TrEMBL record:
Official protein name in the record: Nicastrin
Gene designation: NCSTN
SUPFAM superfamilies in the record: Zn-dependent exopeptidases
Origin species: Oncorhynchus kisutch
Ranges in coiled-coil conformation: none
Pfam families in the cross-refs: Ncstrn_small, Nicastrin
InterPro entries for the chain: Ncstrn_small (IPR041084), Nicastrin (IPR008710)
Family stated for the protein in its record: Belongs to the nicastrin family.
Keywords attached to this entry: Glycoprotein, Membrane, Notch signaling pathway, Signal, Transmembrane, Transmembrane helix
Domain Nicastrin small lobe: 40-158
GO biological process: Notch receptor processing; Notch signaling pathway; protein processing
Record field: transmembrane: 608-628
Topology relative to the membrane: Single-pass type I membrane protein
Main location: membrane
């Protein structure tokens, strides 16, 4: 797999304006009839790519959401999921179900010129005005110089592919080696209801674990612009709310099985996070192994329902095993019975249909495990903007009355929040049953709509709000911004630092499922010095806390939690297999700098005239200099004084 890029260049050219609507075309193996509206972007971009010698760069100005657009492929992660030619060739490469028919693959095209996204309205207006003042043709007349031109700088160190750039990085023996590219990756966020010793890896005797999973990341054509409202946020917010509801119930009722909440990072790039966990489980580098896994419930895209049904997807191949089939059937029953009193139902999909793109597929590659993927689509995605920056708050109809302040919006329970709260309630109840909880306690389990609406606001509208401030550590307060966090996984950093999204989910999960203690800040940093605390079982996080009414000081406190960050970097980089067919090999190039400038360029005639005048001045100055140097004794002679002069 090639590293991700948006090419390198420092060329410039006259500014032109094209009615480039950022939409895609519909394409699949079963149909290839693009609509006139959705074919526009791909065709224009490909024309510019094919005429790249005449195109110095492209600047895209995002507009209002089009009817549909997905720059991803029609079959996401098709080469690293479970459905290969050897697993079941009839299901490989989305042969039976094309999950993302709107996908045009634009994100995976390689362009030999820079492509920039421009967000600031003022900068956009400056460029437009420069174009209209200097480059627009009026009444069919030719272009009048000077012309408005733009130069884009985006020097990229890496070239070719991952294997090449990683080899070049390893061959740098200088005292200050320059990394040409870095592996994509970060950290998974994990938490057990009943924590295990974090230093004891491998199989746990007589332990059975139910995994509840969701993915964290998303991407877009411009990676830093991804928001993934439906693609990822709807799933992990639902799971966070379910974890809160479930932990409150399990404190009172004992369970037969343990529950692992797993939030996987880097899933868009060929399942980085989930493949890493499976690899660690197989090699005794995780606190449990695959034999300890009883079943898996994954929360996929659940916010864009077309009716009152959510759909339960299972793997038809593993269900050919009677034991797996029976466990999946029981899980389906638990899910369907958990919607009692709620305004929706769970419907099982056709047995012959494969799983949609999901982390669960990576577990099935290693072992036949019973599991269900929960989604709002029966066949292809309801998500019209899969992996594009239009998959945002507006896509989920996350709107607020105009007269509300930001803090009032934080507390305002939207219809989307109510809907996801019900899904979280059903998920929590199902997990409680799967873990062996008492059925008489099930209907007492309910997710909190206020928590859900606050999370949606923080993750999709404004991360810098009073609730997110309260649950974060003081040293991490700067990651909170007046906009959503970035959902792009980023690169695996050697400094052991996670990105903002990972920290937000870690601290939210810790506050929703952990216990507030009376430890001081110094005790919270060194809990092992206390007799009843253990860092082998728990993590200890010092958080800012809320500001009480009529006060300016926060009530900070220490949270004892089972939440851990676990490395989410593809095993291919540990193995040194940069051309792996089993694991993700995505890397990101190092960049020298990225910038742009706009200026006026004169006509070629004026440039030649200026050059001619310059050459003439040069030769004239040379002649004058020669003349002056040859006559210097005459021109600069002085009257000599007599030798016998006295003073």
């Amino acid at each position: 797999m090639a590293f991700e890029q948006r090419t390198q260049s420092s060329l410039y050219g006259p500014v032109g304006v094209i009615p480039l609507h950022q939409v895609g075309y519909t394409h699949s193996r079963k149909q290839s009839t693009p609509s006139p509206l959705t074919s526009r972007t791909k065709s224009i971009m490909m024309k510019m790519k094919n005429a790249s010698s005449r195109v110095a760069g492209v600047v895209v100005v995002p507009k209002t959401s089009p009817p549909e657009f997905s720059p991803h492929t029609t079959c996401p992660n098709e080469n690293t999921g479970v459905y290969t030619e050897t697993y079941d060739h009839n299901l490989a490469h989305c042969n039976t179900t094309v999950w993302n028919p709107r996908g045009n693959g634009l994100s995976y095209e390689e362009f030999d010129f820079p492509v920039f996204s421009l967000k600031e309205d003022n900068e956009t207006e400056v460029i437009k005005q420069c174009y209209f003042d200097h480059n627009r043709v009026v009444n069919g007349s030719g272009l009048q110089y000077p012309l408005c031109a733009m130069q884009l700088f985006s020097h990229m160190h890496a070239v070719t592919d991952t294997a090449t750039c990683m080899r070049r990085s390893s061959m740098d023996f200088s005292t200050s080696p320059v990394m040409v590219c870095d592996p994509l990756g970060g950290y998974n966020v994990c938490a057990f209801i009943r924590p295990y010793n974090s230093t004891a890896f491998g199989h746990k005797e007589n332990e059975s674990v139910v995994i509840a999973a969701a993915r964290l990341d998303s991407k877009a054509f411009f990676l830093e612009d991804s928001t993934g409202a439906e693609g990822s946020v709807s799933g992990f917010v639902t799971l966070l709310a379910a974890a809160q509801a479930l932990c409150e119930a399990t404190q009172e009722a004992p369970r037969t099985r343990n529950i692992l909440f797993a939030f996987f990072h880097g899933e868009v790039f060929d399942y980085i996070g989930s493949s890493r966990m499976v690899y660690d489980m197989k090699n005794n580098m995780f606190v449990i192994d695959l034999d300890n896994v009883h079943s898996i419930l994954e929360i996929g895209q659940v916010a864009v329902r077309s009716g009152t049904n959510l759909f339960l997807h299972s793997d038809p191949v593993s269900r050919r095993n009677n034991t797996v089939h029976d466990e999946v059937t029981n899980l389906v029953k638990n899910l369907q019975s958990s919607t009692a009193g709620l305004n929706f139902s769970f419907v099982e999909t056709d047995f012959s249909q494969p799983l949609p793109p999901s982390s669960f597929q990576r577990f099935l590659r290693a072992r036949a495990i019973p599991g269900i993927v929960l989604a709002d689509h029966q066949t292809d995605f309801n998500n019209r903007y899969y992996e594009s920056f239009y998959d945002n708050a507006a896509h989920l109809n996350l709107t607020y009355p105009s007269n509300l302040s930001p803090e009032e919006q934080l507390e305002f329970v939207t219809d989307t929040a109510k809907s996801l709260t019900e899904v979280a309630t059903a998920v929590a109840r199902t997990l409680f049953k799967q873990a062996g909880g008492n059925n008489s306690q099930v209907n007492k389990i309910n997710a909190d709509p206020k928590t859900v609406t606050q999370m949606l606001y923080g993750f999709l509208v404004r991360s810098n709000n009073s609730w997110f401030q309260a649950v974060m550590a003081p040293e991490l307060k700067d990651i909170l911004q007046p906009n959503p966090p970035q959902y792009y996984v980023g690169v695996a950093k050697s400094s052991h630092q996670a990105n903002a999204l990972t920290y937000l989910v870690q601290y939210l999960l810790a506050n929703l499922t952990g216990t507030a203690t009376n430890l001081t800040q110094s005790q919270c940093k060194k809990p092992d010095e206390l007799p009843n605390e253990s860092t082998y079982l728990y993590s200890y996080l010092w958080v800012q806390g809320m500001v009480p009414p009529n006060s300016t000081q926060r009530e900070s406190f220490c949270v004892r939690t089972a939440v851990r960050l676990v490395k989410a970097v593809s095993p291919a980089f540990d193995l040194g297999d940069y051309v792996s067919k089993e694991y993700s090999t995505w890397t990101k190039s190092q960049w020298k700098f990225i910038k742009a400038r706009i200026f006026l360029v004169a006509s070629r005639d004026l440039e030649m005239l200026t050059l001619g005048v310059g050459v003439a001045v040069l030769f004239t100055s040379l002649l004058v200099t020669y003349f002056v140097s040859t006559k210097a004794d005459v021109l600069f002679s002085s009257v000599r004084e007599p030798n016998n002069a006295a003073y």
